């Protein structure tokens, strides 16, 4: 047996239990001072000197070759190797030659070579390093529309890298070399001309030749997210949002606002995962009658806002206009809507669906004239913005239409209240189509504040004969019912023109108003009525007050006047009326007020003296006057005795004593004139008259 084999086997007998399977970074001490008569010398190669653990392999194999003696030759024998030699290990060789070893844990592994050269034992050591690569530790941010910034962090993983290879995904790659731990952190910016055609990757490089597993990073040229569909649910209290596009894996904040209001964060986010073409979520807690708008928001690496398109809700409203017809109205959610469609079906069965009723692009009204009041219906409005493939779809919540009970019929908005005479007012309703089945009339006295029901009728007018139109204003409302028993909303108040006078020689009256759309200003015509009933228009105005002194005086000039100046107001208001066939006319609606009478008090003209001396002048004490309905004259002597009485204006005192024959002596005589004017007001005048002889 050779000496080296003897030594090795002898040592093995004592040390085999000291073998271990770790590794160490520093060269074992026995590689330079083996002891026991063993010398240091010889050469060999380890291939490769470095192994890499990465995505491609989970192990590394060290292969030894090219063993040489002290002079670089091959004059040796009994060649052997110990792999993973460490401090504390003994020099023990396997019985058979082993020239390779596979390792799975990172670290430095020492390989000891032994050989017999001319009867002496020689050893030498080489190392094999297995490097555990780590992916780069970085942040990815983008700024603007096409710029990306990689931030390389200061970390244990990055401190081991000596460089990087970046494949930007647009056909270009970039090498960063000479990196030391002192370089961290640092940034690298790249500008794209468009969306990368390939997956951007970054590889960490090591000084000993290893490369890390390629790390993919995301960059989509800051693609904006898009709301492709907005659908109202649960009657409008919930809204379902569908998002497309944007960046994979990025969380987008959902913002909402009332239309024309301020944006608010809903606290909810939408994230479209890799491989998903869309993502949906439903938001709750909305007011069903309020228009809301939604958008998605995030920020780029420069904290600039990245916003999606803005999409607003459609809020439908149903108005049952007849037992057969419903009008669906809705708001315009976007000025660029290209078209709408209205879908409907029977509720709740969904029977007889129609999902494509067309509506003109700019129209926001749809009439359905085939209602059956024994059924219920669900309607939904869909708006389309743009064209496919970039079309945005907005769906309203479903609205329930129940012709029998669910909706109030629209109120009547055109009506007139006209005074026919001193005890009758006519309230009339204008209707373009057929009459309703039943009408319910209400009245309020003294203004539009306290309405009480006064009559039900199958006629669309009411002659109210329990009124005093000269004393106060009367207002009316009406409701109507269709054949299914549906009741309309109450109409607005329609009021009489109440004519009065709050100042001398001035007329004042309340307004005549038809509260319907398409009305014109009211024209008021002031009319006079003489004692024969003749009517004349004396003035016109748009105001509700007019001075009429001249008109009063003119009326009183009539020799047959009884002291009354009678007026009334004729109000005329034009309203746009659709008479069918697309023809609209300006139709004048005319009403009359009560009559108002200015009463002129009795006018008396009393002489202060008279001379009954047969000369033909001032022979009689005679009272002249106008506007006198009842007349009395009494003449007194100096003792207060009545010496003359008359009940006629044309019957005067001729200056006689109480016998009516004997001339009364000259002097002063007292008199009293009294009576009633045409309005029933008393008048009286007391004085004295001088009788001259």
From TrEMBL:
The UniProt record lists the keyword Chloroplast: no
InterPro entries: FN3_dom, FN3_sf, Ig-like_fold, T9SS_type_B
Protein's UniProt keywords contain Signal: yes
Leader sequence residues: 1-22
Keywords, comma-separated and alphabetical: Signal
Domain Fibronectin type-III: 312-404
Top-level taxon of origin: Bacteria
This protein's name: Fibronectin type-III domain-containing protein
């Amino acid at each position: 047996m050779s000496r080296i084999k003897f030594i090795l086997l002898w040592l093995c007998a004592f040390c085999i239990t000291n073998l271990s399977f770790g590794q160490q970074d520093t060269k074992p001490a026995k590689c330079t001072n083996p002891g026991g008569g063993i010398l240091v010398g010889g050469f060999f190669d380890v291939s490769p000197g470095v192994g890499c653990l990465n995505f491609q392999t989970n192990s590394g194999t060290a292969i030894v070759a090219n063993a040489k003696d002290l002079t670089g030759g091959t004059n040796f024998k009994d060649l052997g190797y110990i792999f993973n030699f460490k401090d504390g290990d003994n020099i023990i060789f396997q019985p058979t030659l082993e020239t390779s070893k596979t390792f799975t844990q990172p670290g430095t592994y020492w390989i000891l070579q032994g050989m017999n050269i001319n009867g002496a034992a020689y050893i030498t050591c080489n190392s094999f390093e297995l490097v555990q690569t780590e992916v780069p530790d970085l942040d990815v941010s983008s700024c603007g529309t096409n710029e990306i910034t990689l931030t390389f962090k200061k970390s244990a993983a990055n401190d081991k890298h000596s460089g990087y290879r970046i494949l930007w995904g647009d056909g270009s790659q970039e090498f960063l070399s000479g990196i030391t731990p002192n370089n961290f952190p640092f940034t690298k910016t790249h500008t794209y001309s468009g969306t990368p055609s390939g997956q951007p990757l970054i590889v960490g490089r090591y000084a000993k030749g290893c490369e890390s597993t390629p790390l993919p990073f995301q960059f989509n040229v800051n693609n904006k997210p898009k709301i492709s569909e907005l659908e109202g649910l649960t009657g409008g209290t919930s809204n379902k949002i569908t998002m497309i596009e944007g960046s994979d894996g990025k969380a987008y904040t959902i913002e909402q606002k009332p239309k024309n209001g301020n944006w608010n964060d809903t606290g909810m986010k939408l994230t479209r995962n890799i491989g998903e073409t869309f993502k949906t979520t439903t938001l709750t807690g909305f007011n069903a009658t309020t228009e809301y708008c939604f958008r998605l928001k995030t920020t780029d690496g420069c904290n600039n806002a990245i916003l999606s398109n803005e999409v607003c809700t459609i809020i439908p409203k149903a108005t049952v206009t007849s037992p057969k017809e419903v009008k669906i109205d809705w708001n315009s959610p976007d000025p660029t809507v290209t078209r709408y469609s209205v879908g409907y079906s029977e509720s709740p069965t969904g029977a007889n669906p129609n999902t494509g009723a067309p509506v003109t692009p700019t129209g926001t009204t749809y009439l359905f004239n085939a209602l059956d009041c024994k059924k219920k219906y669900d309607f939904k409005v869909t708006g389309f913005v743009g064209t496919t493939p970039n079309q945005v779809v907005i769906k309203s919540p479903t609205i329930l239409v129940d012709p029998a009970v669910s909706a109030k019929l629209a109120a009547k908005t055109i009506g007139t209240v006209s005074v026919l005479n001193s005890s009758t007012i006519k309230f009339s309703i204008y209707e373009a189509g057929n009459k309703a089945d039943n009408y319910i009339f209400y009245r309020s006295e003294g203004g539009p504040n306290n309405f009480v029901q006064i009559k039900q009728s199958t006629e669309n007018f009411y002659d109210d004969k329990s009124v005093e139109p000269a004393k106060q204003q009367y207002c009316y409302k009406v409701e109507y019912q269709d054949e299914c028993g549906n009741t309309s909303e109450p109409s607005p108040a329609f009021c009489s023109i109440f004519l009065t006078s709050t100042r001398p020689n001035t007329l004042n009256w309340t307004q005549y108003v038809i509260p319907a759309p398409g009305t014109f200003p009211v024209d008021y015509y002031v009319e006079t009525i003489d004692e024969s009933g003749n009517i004349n228009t004396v003035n016109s105005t748009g105001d509700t007050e007019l001075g009429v002194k001249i008109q009063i005086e003119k009326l009183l000039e009539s020799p047959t006047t009884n002291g009354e100046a009678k007026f009334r107001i004729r109000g005329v208001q034009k309203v746009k009326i659709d008479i069918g066939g697309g023809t609209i006319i300006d139709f004048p609606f005319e009403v009359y007020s009560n009559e108002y009478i200015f009463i002129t008090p009795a006018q008396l003209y009393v002489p202060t003296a008279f001379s009954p001396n047969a000369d033909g002048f001032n022979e009689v004490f005679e009272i002249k006057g106008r506007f006198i309905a009842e007349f009395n004259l009494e003449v007194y002597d100096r003792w207060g005795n009545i010496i003359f009485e008359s009940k006629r204006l044309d019957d005067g005192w001729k200056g006689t004593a109480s016998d009516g024959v004997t001339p009364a002596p000259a002097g002063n005589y007292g008199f009293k004139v009294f009576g009633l004017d045409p309005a029933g007001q008393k008048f009286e005048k007391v004085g004295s008259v001088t009788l001259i002889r």
